Amino acid sequence: MVPKRVALSASDPLTRAGLAGYLKDRRDLRVLGSEEDRTVAEVAVLATGTATGEVLARLREGLPPVPAVLVADSFPDIAVLVEHRVVSVLPRTSAAVGTLGARVAGAVALDGVPDADGRAELARQVRVAAEVRAGAQDPSEVLSEREVTVLRMMADGWDIGDIAARLCYSDRTVKNIIYALTDRLGLRNRAHAVAYAVRAGLI
């Protein structure tokens, strides 16, 4: 497999170095050095504190129109994100080795202009990021310990009955746990809930 070329554009050198460190062990991705030609990038990672249209335009200078993952403390409207070909957002407190790598790898497959489903997913990510910022210091505080346990077991392939037996719950209780967290976070189904937990680095 030929690694996909990743351009990093950050508001400060320290942040850029941190992001490069998160991605350095990914065999499917290769971070372009600061002296390399960024026009050959196939995906971009943009990082800043408060993301505005002006900031995004500055971060995208010299980059080709490739899909981008935005790592920031706060995010602009969806229309602004779409204008700058942002296909995924990640709070800076959630950026970690596995999480950032998965987002970047997922962005590679997109053309940089989200369709209706892509915009809906982007809106959900922004909403979750805002909830994390307003009510918790990290994504793990958005979910209870019980919810994270259920998500981990679902990710491992356990079905409702097995989870209920292992945790000494009724099937109905497990279903209610899953329904409550998917409804609260605006997730579509169980698979979407597991994907959210993976992206947030919870499992």
Automatic annotation (TrEMBL):
The keyword Lipid metabolism does not apply. GO terms for molecular function: DNA binding. Keywords: DNA-binding, Transcription, Transcription regulation. This is HTH luxR-type domain-containing protein. It comes from Actinokineospora bangkokensis. One of its GO terms (biological process) is regulation of DNA-templated transcription. Residues 136-201 form the HTH luxR-type domain. The keyword DNA-binding applies.
